[in-house]
Structures are given as C-alpha cells and as structure tokens.
Protein 1
Amino acid sequence: MTGYMALLKESGLKATFQRLHILEVVDKYGHIAIEDIYDKVIKIHPSLSVATIYKNIIIMVEKGVLVEVPIMGRKSKYELSKLDHIHLVCTQCGEVEDLACTKDINNILDFLTQEEKFKLTKQQINLYGTCSQCQSQKILQK
Ligand SMILES: [Zn+2]
Ligand SMILES: [Zn+2]
C-alpha cells in the first residue's frame, strides 16, 4: 500500500482510501475496465458509486498515475503507468498483453518523429488481433 501512497503524492494527488484501493485492484489485474474495477472495489467500499470511481480514475489518468488502453469495440481498460511498452489487444476476448519495447522499436519511433520535428514524450502502441487462446478455441470449434 505504501508504494501506491507515494505514487499518488508524487503526482500531487491526495492518497484517499478509494484511490489506493483502485490502484491495488488495477495493479493486481494488469489491465482492467472501469466496471470490473467497480465490482472489486465495492466489495470493500459498498457505498461507492460507479461515478465516484470513474471520477477518481479520470483524475489519476490526467495526473499520469494510470494509463487508458483503448480496446477496439469494447470499453477502455486501465493500467498503472510503467515503462513504455506495446500492447497486444485481442479483439475477441479483450485480453491485453504487455510486450516490452525493444531498442530497435524505440529507434524507429525516434527516427519517424524526428523526421517530423515532433518531440516524442510518451508512447503507446496498441496492436489489435486475435490472441493464441482465442485462435486455438476457433480451431476446436471447427
Ligand atoms: Zn483472445
Ligand atoms: Zn500494458
């Protein structure tokens, strides 16, 4: 819990009990939608509304504590801010997998953005497709 507390304070946010609990849930699941965060958080804070949780998440996204991951055709998922990485997003089941950014990829991004005189500060690359599990399920159905 103390790590989350420091994270919030560094970002200029009050470390409220709800925010700490939201961060704990997001950290546990990796990438998670607001409705699912709500389902977990109300077990400990039954009086919380979706709107309150939503508001807290939006503030934490604005302050860079959380990152929104857009999922094609579904609701966004949220994750803790961490080193730049690539997302493999399954459009069948909505699973999100993290892939580390290699030096080669960073070099390409630097090259492309410098070409446009664009100063790159933050990146998020989302690749959409079908995960291995959904692919094997499809084969089984045939
Ligand atoms: Zn899948
Ligand atoms: Zn991620």
Protein 2
Amino acid sequence: MNYCSQCAAPVALRIPEGDDRPRHQCQTCGQVHYQNPRIITGALLTTGDQVLLCRRAIAPRQGYWTLPAGFMENGEGADAGALRESWEEARAQGTLDGLYTAFSLPHINQLYLFFRGTLDPVAYAAGPESEAVALYAADALPWDALAFRAVEKTLRYWLEDRRAGAFPTRHETLEADPRFR
Ligand SMILES: [Zn+2]
C-alpha cells in the first residue's frame, strides 16, 4: 500500500500508538489501514459415496481439482458463500449440514472454511471458473491432481469420518507445502 484510501496522501509503515506491530498509516490524516487474513469458504457436497469436484480453469492451480470455494463476500454468511461458490463454479445446489473443516494458512494470510452438505438431485455443470465438474467416488479421488492442501485434508477427513460414521468439526493450522505450488 502506497497511498491513503481516505485522503490520497502517502502512507508509511509504522507502529501506531498503543499497537504492537507495524501498520500502514497515513502521514496526513492518521488513518490506520489494517490488513487481515482473507476468508475462503467452500462446500463438500456429496451424494451417496460421491463428492462433487471442479477442475480449475483459472490460476492459481489451473487444471487441478478442487472443492467449490472462493473468497467470502461482504454482507453474506460463510455458509451462504459456500453455496454461492458451489453455484458459480459447479452450477450445483445443496443442503448444508454445518461447518466441517477450518484451516488457518498464516504463510498466505488466509482462512479456509469448508461446509459439508448433500448435493441436490444431480444437476451440475462447469461454471466460468471451472474446466470441468465431476462426481468422484470415495475410492477413486484424484489424489495426485488436487489444487490445494486444505482440499486434500478435507477429503482425507471425509474418508475417515465416513468409515467412523461421524463428522466432527476440525481446525488446523497449515504451513506452506511445496506439493501445492
Ligand atoms: Zn489519509
């Protein structure tokens, strides 16, 4: 950040009074421009033993498979955002059962949230950000072609939890993983 969005004067990186870390602060009007993690919300929609995946048509990770997910918008709930992304990327609708996995990614300042739910009677198609959309059986998931570690972890938990018959909500903090560059 170089200029203040309030008054257009230059900003400087400094520790504001009473704070404990450097912030972008306007040198003219004093406005502090906080930068905080971005939230990505998505859905694990299943039907029987199959899960809905999208092959990404855009960077990053073009050509790799993902659960439908994207940046949460202002003015919406995370669950509504997961359903919106499912529609935008996979033209799919579903009924959510609740929050399933949450992953903090401090190295890229993101928080991933995945909700688990049931895909509405099968209708889906690739949206503009997807090259393809498909239902994958639990025993045939594309492990070598997944887009993100948070997606891989969520699918692994889903396999384990299906066997156990219970789907607890989990949170983990993930570090950078060179397999997903
Ligand atoms: Zn300013």
Protein 3
Amino acid sequence: MSQYSQPDFWSLKARKEGYPARSVYKLKEIDEKFGVFKRFCGKALDLGAAPGSWSLYTLRRVGAAGSLAAVDLSPLSRQYDKGLFDKENFRFLQGDMTSMEIRDAALALGPFNAVLCDAAPATTGNSAIDAIRSLALSETAFEYAESALAQGGVFVVKVFQGGDSASLLKRIRGLFSQGRSFKPQSCRKGSFETYYIGLGKKS
Ligand SMILES: C[S@@+](CC[C@H](N)C(=O)[O-])C[C@H]1O[C@@H](n2cnc3c(N)ncnc32)[C@H](O)[C@@H]1O
C-alpha cells in the first residue's frame, strides 16, 4: 500500500472543490503569490498535466477567452471536468514531453503566455536518482519556455531539491525579468519538491 493511499486534508478538499488531485493548491498558492493568471488571459501550456487539476484550475482562471494545451503520458481524469476538457479552447496531447513528436505538436499550438510544468518522474526511492530525473524534465520544460513562451510570459516548474537545480534557477533568471523559488504550504511534509517561477520573459 502506498504511503499516500489515505486521502489527507488537501486531497479531500480537492475532491470537494471539483479537482482530481491535491496538487491544485500548489498552483493556487503560486497564482495568489505571483499573480500568474493576472498577467494574462491568453494561451497556456501544462506539461505533466494528469490527472488534470492544474489544467482545470487554468481553464477556470482563463475562461472562454483563453486556451490551454496539456501534455501527459497518462490520460486525464474526466471525473471533475464538467465538459471543460471537451471545449474547443482545450487540447490534450498524450505522450512523452521529451519526444520530438510531442514537442513539435505542442509548439505548433503556441506561442503561449504561460508554460506550467508539474511533471514528475516515477520515483525510485533513491532521492539522488529521482532528483536527476526530475531535473531533466524541468530542463525540458525550460526549453519549451525558451521556444514557445511569448515576451512577458510566465513560467512555473516543479523541481526536486537535491540535484543541480541551482543552475536551472540561474538560467531562469537569465531568460526572465524575475526568477523566484517558492515552496507552497500545500506540498507534502518532508517532500523534496519546490517550484521555480519565471516572471516576464525577456524579448
Ligand atoms: C504530479 S503529477 C501532475 C499533477 C497535475 N499537475 C495535476 O494537477 O493533476 C506528474 C505527472 O507528470 C507526468 N509525466 C512524467 N514524466 C512525463 C513525461 N516524460 N512526459 C509527459 N508527462 C510526464 C506523469 O505521468 C504524471 O501524471
């Protein structure tokens, strides 16, 4: 049995509020602190989107005037979307975000005003290996932001602390007017994850 098999406060709250996963509160905290969706009402890209809480939060925040493309290896949950995932302003690409095929298909839907990435590798229990794999996904997300984010755009990416994530933060600070590190309160206690936020992509 997984150590997380018992729903905790955040998981129960998520279901009650119409989201499949507790991760929605991490994006909500980031949005409230950094004004992610105050800065635009345009196009967003969500990498590592399943089961779909960040995508639902984004679609609800940007409304019908905005649009979202989402990518994941796994399908999205359809339990809470109330038809939002069937609307014309949403596209889901099922596949590997590191593959050329998915990259080309996603980039063709841009440019985006926000690139969000909560992707996480399947954990091995070895925190050093997990950190290396997580950083590879975070760096791939940064490459999407480099290629497909419009000027002024926002980037949010999950990183596991422990690897060489400081070099990624440095690259974010080079590409954006501001690069910040933030650990939401709703992260699980003892988790190694944190989030890097790039605000205002430079031209
Ligand atoms: C923590 S979950 C994301 C939760 C999501 N933000 C939400 O709110 O529902 C991490 C996701 O990353 C996805 N993932 C991991 N590696 C990936 C890859 N190479 N390409 C696409 N998705 C990947 C996993 O399939 C998993 O669904």
Protein 4
Amino acid sequence: MSKQVLIHWPGCQSTRCPAGCDWLDAARQAGFAIPTGCLGGSCGACEIDVNGTTIRACIATVPASKSGELTVELSTDPYW
Ligand code: FES
C-alpha cells in the first residue's frame, strides 16, 4: 500500500490521496480545477507550486512527502 499524502489546496480544502496518484485526479477529488492545455508536459498551463516547487501537473504524480503533507499553490509563473 502506498503512503497517504495530505494535500492542502488553495482555498483551504484538504484531501488525502496515495503517493503516486495523478495530480489531475487528486485535484478533481478536491473540486479544484488545474488548468490544462496540451496534457503532454510542454505548454506549462497546468503548472502548480507544490511545497514551493513548480511542477507540471499533467505529467507529474503526487510525491511521497516526509511530513505526509503537501501544500499546493497556483504557480506564479508568468504564463499565468
Ligand atoms: S497541460 Fe501542457 S504542460 Fe501540462
């Protein structure tokens, strides 16, 4: 069984999902829409900040976190 990670979404929602699940699925469960474009990792539309690190949600999976928690923020990338 993979480890559960507690994810804090922008706007105070928190959900749990297993490490290794898709960010887009995890966001959907939280009722949080990550904007997407290419779904292939090249356009950057889906970028979010996870514990201060920018990732592309469409090609990344939820990492195991040492603390068991991750905080998501909308990316401040100029693409936005
Ligand atoms: S949707 Fe284009 S990089 Fe993720």
